[in-house]
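User: Can you model how zinc ion sits in this protein?
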Amino acid sequence: MRGCELNVPYYPASLPNVVKFKNQARCALRGYAVRLTAMIKNEKKKYVVKRAATGLGLFAVEVIPARKRIIEYIGPLISNEELEQRRGKYFFGVNTKWSIDGSARSNLARYINHSCQPNAEAFITGHRIWSWSKRTIKAGEEITINYGKEYFDDHIKPWGCKCAACRNKPRQRL
Ligand SMILES: [Zn+2]
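Assistant: Here's the modeled complex, given as structure tokens:
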């Protein structure tokens, strides 16, 4: 890692850092930078960010078959201790020690909204987070995952869930 600004255990696919490293020929992460740039370019063809019922959302440009790995949640890997000192709502825990700070706009996966009946789900493999399709997702359809009970209770429930499944449900007692 000598000659590289990487002196903290950042996740290799960390975009903000990778961009910095691009011009550093000797950086050990140069290979990652090249691959990541290609990956993001490819993702930009397959997904589009646009207005959804709950703010911005991520939409499929082409049909996504069921049970396919679709998009990675990318960003610097930060320790959960450090997370306590940062602000933001795009932290995604990978284990008890580490989280990914997915707040960079180039992290398209951060635009995936919550749904109580999602068409995708997130899986953690090592220190990486990938969304997988649960069923066939149509071209033009919004991609959604279930954020989980803890997030739902803290950040969604108090204001009422606006996902498609909840919007179409007959109104229940308040
Ligand atoms: Zn809902």
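A couple of observations from the model: Residues 47-167 form a domain with the Beta-clip-like fold (CATH 2.170.270.10). Confidence is low (pLDDT under 50) at residues 1-26.
User: Helpful, thanks.
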